């Protein structure tokens, strides 16, 4: 996971990337709810006004944190067809969010306009354009994949310790016949579930690109 924090009295100016790393480290320890500008300043050995000179408010800080999370998804792509590139990008995006506690919440609650976001979006759009999508359809295809990855990461990071086997055993087969007979515990097989959904999504994109 990203970031490290430390207390003490800071001497000299503070850098924006140092603040972002410290904020991510605090979230790793206590979750996104634990992040306050006061607590962050204390962790950095600084005063809150020093942070507000870099970030106008907590929302601006979270935007910068989202960019730092997304930066982990960047890197050279294989020379492959558009479907493979979409799958690689989606997998990297998921790994980047899961690599940071509450990473999906940080990214999902932010509208960033910095380089990592632009580079990731451009790579997705290049793949969608190669698939045959143009104009609004290319943008919508990109946001469809992004929303799927974000939703899966949000659910995985927000899961609670629920015994689905016991829960299913308590279901009435008369009231919920399909649910009672389903493979309900498979809901928590997140890696396989994600791969399955992504295959379904790319298959739908393939069909949609040939039948606009």
TrEMBL record:
Keyword field contains Repressor: yes
GO biological process, alphabetically ordered: negative regulation of DNA-templated transcription; response to antibiotic
Keyword Cell inner membrane in record: no
DNA-binding region(s), residue ranges: 36-55
Keywords: DNA-binding, Repressor, Transcription, Transcription regulation
Pfam families (alphabetical): TetR_C_1, TetR_N
UniProt domain HTH tetR-type: residue ranges: 13-73
Any GO MF annotation of the entry: DNA-binding transcription factor activity
PANTHER family: HTH-TYPE TRANSCRIPTIONAL REGULATOR RUTR (PTHR30055), TRANSCRIPTIONAL REGULATORY PROTEIN (PTHR30055:SF151)
The protein's name: Putative transcriptional regulator, TetR family protein
Organism per entry: Streptomyces angustmyceticus
């Amino acid at each position: 996971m990203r970031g490290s924090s430390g207390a003490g009295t800071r001497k000299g100016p503070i850098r924006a990337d140092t603040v972002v790393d410290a904020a991510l480290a605090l979230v790793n320890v206590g979750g996104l709810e634990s992040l306050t500008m006061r607590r962050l300043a204390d962790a950095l050995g600084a005063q809150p006004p020093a942070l507000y000179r870099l970030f106008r408010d907590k929302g601006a800080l979270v935007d910068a944190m989202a960019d730092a999370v997304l930066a982990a998804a960047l890197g050279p792509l294989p020379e492959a067809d558009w479907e493979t590139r979409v799958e690689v990008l989606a997998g990297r995006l998921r790994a980047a969010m899961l690599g940071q506690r509450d990473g999906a919440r940080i990214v999902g609650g932010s509208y960033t306009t910095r380089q990592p976001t632009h580079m990731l979006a451009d790579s997705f759009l290049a793949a969608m354009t190669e698939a045959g999508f143009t104009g609004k359809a290319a943008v919508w295809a990109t946001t469809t994949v992004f929303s799927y990855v974000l939703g899966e990461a949000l659910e995985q990071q927000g899961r609670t310790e629920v015994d689905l086997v016991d829960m299913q055993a308590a279901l009435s087969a008369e009231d919920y016949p399909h649910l009672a007979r389903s493979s309900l515990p498979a809901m928590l097989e997140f890696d396989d579930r994600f791969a399955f959904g992504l295959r379904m999504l790319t298959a739908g994109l393939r069909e949609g690109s040939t039948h606009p």
